[in-house]
Amino acid sequence: MMKIVPLLCLALAACGAQPTPQMWGAERTDVTRDGRAYTVFQKDRRVEVIRLGWASPGDHQGIRATMIALIPEVTGCRLVESTLQGDSGEMRGRINCPKPK
Predict the structure, then answer these.
(1) C-alpha distances in Å from residue 51, one per residue of 1, 11, 76, 99
(2) Which residues contact 81 (CB under 8 A, 6 or more apart)?
(3) Which contacts (CB < 8 Å, 24+ apart) does range 76-82 have?
(4) Do 74 and 98 meet the contact criterion of CB atoms below 8 Å apart?
(5) Cα 28-33-44 angle, rounded to 5 deg
């Protein structure tokens, strides 16, 4: 049993950011901003942003602003702000994308 626990921890750590079940099959983009790692998942008209790693209490407002700014940058779409849910660890919302020409 003692050998299984470290292997399980290693396997879980290797998984990284995983989307919510509704976002399975989404396009994944990994981004680093200001020394922090984020993962953006886009599927249809939905987006999910996950911050990786620890953040001190005073950093959360800036992290949230960065996560919101990453959405149009990564997806090329506009966030529907009224649909935004979550916090500085994980956010979800809907996006409006330009129609292809």
Answers:
(1) 32, 20, 20, 29
(2) 93
(3) 77/42, 77/45, 77/47, 79/47
(4) no
(5) 25
Per-residue pLDDT of the chain (101 residues; tens, 9 = 90+): 555 544 444 444 445 788 888 999 999 999 999 999 999 999 999 999 999 999 999 999 999 999 999 999 999 999 999 999 999 999 999 999 988 77
Q: How many residues does the chain have?
A: 101
- The CA-based angle 14-17-23, given to 5 degrees, is 130
Question: Side chain identity at 49, as an amino acid letter?
Answer: V
Residue type, 86: G
Token pair 């299984």 in the structure block, residue? 4
Question: Cα angle at 18 between 14 and 23, to 5 degrees?
Answer: 155
What one-letter code names the amino acid at 59? D
Match 């020409």 to its residue by tokens: 101
Q: Which residue in the block uniquely carries the two structure tokens 């919510």?
A: 20
